[in-house]
Amino acid sequence: MPPFRPFLAACLLAAALPSHATNQRPEWLVIDDVKLALHTLPLQPLLDDPVIAARLAIGRAACTGAWRNYEGTWTIRDGTLYLQSLRADPCDDPGRNIPLTTVQPGAEGPLPATWFSGRLLVAPDPARRYYYTGQPSPYVSYRIVTIEAGAVTSDSGADLSKAAPAP
């Protein structure tokens, strides 16, 4: 047997096997004093600016559970999305606090997220999980909050149990 056949067979076998990815640590959104998992990255527009990204000095990921290597806690108050806190190295409990003045020099308290426009995908109570076809869709429904320049413009839900076949 030529020497490359076992190697080729191993490569084909590896390609045929399912791959599993590490779940990522979510951002957090506090609404009405309830802390919910946020599956959107509202900080990303700021990180796309190389000057701001360099100032934040988030660095490289130390674990596969947080490839972005930061974790933000956000809140919605009086119809506005705020960045409440930010920490780097979230896999190292408690991580490294990034002062909000680093994000926006001279700022005090929670920062209004005026840089963000888009939809926030908010997970409800984790006890209401829903799975289908072997791929976990962690929740039956999500709360979708639409933001324009930091202001809430709509707040609705999406029921995933009707969008996918039951197990």
Describe the 3D structure.
The chain is of the alpha+beta class and 167 residues long. It is built from 4 helices and 11 strands. The protein has helices at 4-16, 44-47, 50-56, 100-103; strands at 27-31, 34-38, 70-77, 80-88, 96-97, 111-112, 118-122, 130-132, 135-137, 141-148, 151-159. Strands 1, 2, 3, 4, 5 and 6 form a 6-stranded mixed sheet that branches. A 3-stranded antiparallel sheet has the order 7-10-11, with no helix packed on it. The protein has a two-stranded antiparallel sheet with strand order 8-9. A hairpin with a 2-residue loop joins strand 1 and strand 2 (34-38). The chain is globular. 16% of the residues are buried.
Gist of the model:
By secondary structure, the chain is α+β, with helices and mostly antiparallel strands. 17% of the residues lie in helices and 35% in strands.
Gap between N and C termini? 45 Å
What is the ordering of alpha helices and beta strands? Answer: HEEHHEEEHEEEEEE
The gross shape turns out to be globular
What structural category characterises the helix and strand content?
alpha+beta
Q: Into which percent range does the helicity of residues fall?
A: 10-25%
**Mean pLDDT score:** 77
Radius of gyration over C-alpha positions, nearest whole angstrom:
20 Å
DSSP, total strands: 11
Percent strand equals 35-45%
Task: Work out the helix count.
Answer: 4
Low-confidence stretches: 127-135
